[in-house]
């Protein structure tokens, strides 16, 4: 069985649609799991929530999802992110708010725990270094964990200590005796210098996780952000993948 794992969609409808079109090409993909931050930054929060709610069998909360409905304090957001979150709040319909409200902080699926930030602090904490990954090992019971939040594809292989590896397009991680924390990158706002949408495919029979990169119509998203009056810096960074 295969599972598509998507994270950090950030209301980028063109990127989400491009990823879902790619998912549909592989008929062995049975489910889609979402690691949170459906909204924030981007121009289509309502449509993205609608699609995620319909298409994903599992979804957890990200910091932007809960900031948009005032469930958490967004005072630590940078000024552009704060402007975007206020704009996002105004676009949400009642059903969207209920859906975001209902998202759990973590879930267990097959051999993976799903956490937006880290298993230790699922909403806020970044896992960037091997030390960050080591700190989280005691906070999840499954062998492996999918994380998002940093918008950079990466994976950590752990025994007592962890090592960090970049996660490149169409490469696969072989799961096994060691524990893994895997970040599939961001669908809607990649920050690893590659502007293409990123997501991962977990094959539970082969015990592999493969990274996919999908080009999408960046100019279309940028135009919709212009029309919505969203901050220039957020519009420009999509083309840079930064
Ligand atoms: Zn995010």
Total domains, how many? 1
In the predicted model, the low-confidence regions spanning at least 5 consecutive residues are none
Please state the structural category. Answer: alpha/beta
Radius of gyration: 17 Å
SSE ordering: EHEHEHHHEEHEEEEEEEHH
Lateral arrangement of strands in the main beta sheet: 3-2-1-11-12-9
Number of helices: 8
Structure description:
With 242 residues, the protein is of the alpha/beta class. It has a single domain (2-240), classed as Metallo-dependent phosphatases (Purple Acid Phosphatase, chain A, domain 2). It is 32% helix and 24% strand. It is built from eight helices and twelve strands. It has helices at residues 13-24, 45-55, 63-68, 79-91, 94-102, 130-136, 218-228, 232-240, and strands at 2-6, 29-34, 58-59, 106-109, 112-115, 144-147, 154-158, 162-166, 172-174, 179-183, 197-203, 208-214. Strands 3-2-1-11-12-9 form a six-stranded mixed sheet. A six-stranded mixed sheet has the order 4-5-6-10-7-8, covered by helices on one side. The N and C termini lie far apart (33 Å). The model has no long low-confidence stretch (mean pLDDT 97).
């Amino acid at each position: 069985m295969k599972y598509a794992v998507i994270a950090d969609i950030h209301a980028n409808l063109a990127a989400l649609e491009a990823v879902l079109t790619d998912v549909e090409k592989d008929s062995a993909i049975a489910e889609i799991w979402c690691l949170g931050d459906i909204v924030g930054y981007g121009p289509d929060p309502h449509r993205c929530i609608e699609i995620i709610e319909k298409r994903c069998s599992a979804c957890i909360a990200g910091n932007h999802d809960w900031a948009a409905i005032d469930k958490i304090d967004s005072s630590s957001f940078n000024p552009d992110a704060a402007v975007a979150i206020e704009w996002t709040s105004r676009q949400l319909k009642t059903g969207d708010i209920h859906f975001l409200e209902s998202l759990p902080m973590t879930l267990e699926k097959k051999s993976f725990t799903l956490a937006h930030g880290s298993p230790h602090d699922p909403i806020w904490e970044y896992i960037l270094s091997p030390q960050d990954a080591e700190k989280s090992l005691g906070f999840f019971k499954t062998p492996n964990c999918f994380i998002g939040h940093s918008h950079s594809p990466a994976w950590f292989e752990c025994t007592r200590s962890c090592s960090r590896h970049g996660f490149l397009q169409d490469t696969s991680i072989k799961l096994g005796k060691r524990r893994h924390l895997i970040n599939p990158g961001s669908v809607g706002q990649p920050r690893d210098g590659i502007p293409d949408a990123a997501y991962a495919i977990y094959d539970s029979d082969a015990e592999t996780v493969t990274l996919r990169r999908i080009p999408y119509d960046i100019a279309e998203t940028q135009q919709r952000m212009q029309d919505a009056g969203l901050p220039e810096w957020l519009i420009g960074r999509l083309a840079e993948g930064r």
